[in-house]
Specification:
Structural class: alpha/beta
Strand order of the largest sheet: 4-5-13-10-11-12
CATH architecture of the largest domain: 3-Layer(aba) Sandwich
Number of domains: 2
Helix content: 25-40%
Number of strands: 13
Mean pLDDT: 96
Bound molecules: pyridoxal-5'-phosphate, zinc ion
CATH topology of the largest domain: Rossmann fold
Largest sheet: 6 strands, mixed
CATH class of the largest domain: Alpha Beta
Oligomer: single chain
Length: 422
């Protein structure tokens, strides 16, 4: 057995099945690998010959034997960000750009791809999820591509683009009047009654492993080096712990030199159970009632909150949170300096990175990676009222010049230099 589920606390083995909690001690299950059986096949050379997608790391994913991938998820760009770096007061800054992850433009495509691989192996014909938006889009799209029926449960107040971007795939969308945490509790009850594969409930241990590929890619794209710092937006708190697991696995298997990496968590102040706990020195979450425009991160009682706090503290990192106006500013800063349009979660990451840099927790010479996890076209509502809507002018040069005079508040003449005779 290359991998199996084990309890994170009592270590009991649960084999491979659709289950996320240990019946003995009620702790979460996690995928455990037999690294010795993987060591010889998981090499830099072999990986570099793999496909340009997350499937190049299949040896360290819990996939059924002979699994044939159906979506080219992952292997998104890692971009140097010199202009944003200057703006934030740092130097070696990189962006991991999952705003362009396929097929649905968020990092959730990675986790869903792994969960659905197992859903098929476990014999489900219907898949489902509770979602703050991006997971809904990704489950609906990949269910369509793989011939599953899908049921998607969301809080009623999600952004219109995330609702349409779910329905278009033919998914059954159930809007719940309540918070994500209430939606998620309902889904746990439904999962006990119906034979459905809930990607983030009974398939959660497999789902979560998909997030490791963000970490594998960061290391490979830095030339098989680990960064000094990573800034990660947090909702349920899973992604940040899995990037850490990815870095540990690469060290264990000898693909990168051992090196300490600091993990920094980012939240919106209006839903900040994890950053609040880190700042107060609490090892546990105090659940919150979310109120923020960063809806994709609005989980008041995060499933992996405890483990996220522990990962951050053990790494010597920190967590921060930013107000909704700072989230909007963060979206604009990233767009104006680097030409990337991210959703509210990315605005949270950029805003928190600015704070962490000003606090001296991220130092200028260090290599820092910001995880941009979703696309701005899904949350344009956050920018309503930020830009004037221009009155149209006639398609005439004279009208344009008049318009230019009014905008520049100065007389306008042709800006083409006089040609000089040779
Ligand atoms: C879900 C999500 C996150 C956070 O993921 P967790 O693993 O739940 O912490 C971050 N960014 C975006 C855009 C998301 O949709
Ligand atoms: Zn247990």
């Amino acid at each position: 057995m290359r991998y199996e589920l084990r309890c994170r606390e009592c270590n009991k083995s649960w084999g491979n099945q659709a289950r996320s909690i240990c019946d003995d001690c009620f702790s979460p299950l996690e995928v455990f690998y037999d690294y010795d059986s993987i060591r010889s096949s998981f090499t830099r050379e072999k990986i570099s010959q793999g496909p340009p997608s997350m499937w190049r790391y299949s040896d360290l994913l819990p996939l059924p034997p002979h699994y044939q991938p159906t979506v080219p998820a992952g292997f998104t760009p890692l971009l140097k960000a010199p202009r944003l770096a200057r703006d934030l007061g740092t130097k070696n800054l990189y962006l991991k750009n999952d705003a362009v992850c396929l097929p649905t433009l968020s990092f959730k495509d990675r986790v869903v791809a792994v969960a659905l691989a197992q859903a098929r192996a476990f014999g489900f014909d219907t898949v489902a999820c509770s979602s703050t938006g991006n997971l809904a889009n990704s489950v609906a799209a990949q269910a369509a591509r793989n011939g599953f029926k899908s049921w998607i449960f969301i809080p009623a107040d999600l952004e219109p683009a995330k609702i349409i971007g779910t329905q278009v795939f033919g998914a059954k969308l159930v809007r719940i009047s309540g918070s994500y945490d209430q939606v998620n509790r309902l889904c746990s009850q439904i999962a006990d009654e119906r034979n459905w594969g809930f990607v983030n409930v009974n398939l959660r241990p497999y789902y979560a492993e998909g997030s490791k590929t963000v970490g594998f890619e960061i290391a490979e794209q830095l030339g098989w080096r680990l960064p000094d710092n990573v800034v990660v937006p947090m909702a349920g708190g899973s992604l940040i712990t899995k990037i850490k697991k990815a870095f540990e696995e690469l060290q264990e298997l000898g693909l990168v030199e051992p090196k300490p990496v600091k993990f920094f968590g980012a939240q919106a102040t209006g839903c900040s159970p994890i950053s609040t706990a880190v700042k107060a020195g609490n090892p546990e979450i105090d659940p919150q009632k979310p109120s923020t425009i960063a809806r994709s991160l609005a989980i008041g009682n995060p499933a992996d909150g405890h483990y996220a706090i522990r990962a951050i503290n053990k790494s010597g990192g920190w967590a921060e949170d930013v107000s909704d106006p700072q989230v909007v500013r963060g979206i604009q800063d990233l767009a104006e300096t680097e030409g990337i349009f991210t959703e509210t979660a990315g605005g949270v990451t950029v805003g928190c990175a600015r704070k962490l840099s000003h606090q001296g927790r991220i130092r200028p010479e260090e290599t820092t990676v910001l995880c941009i996890t979703g696309n701005g076209l899904k949350t344009t509502d956050a920018l309503v009222g930020q830009y004037e809507s221009e009155t149209p002018i006639a398609a005439k040069l004279a009208d344009f010049n008049k318009y230019l005079e009014s905008v520049l508040d100065a007389p306008v003449k042709s800006a083409i230099p006089e040609t000089v005779e040779a």
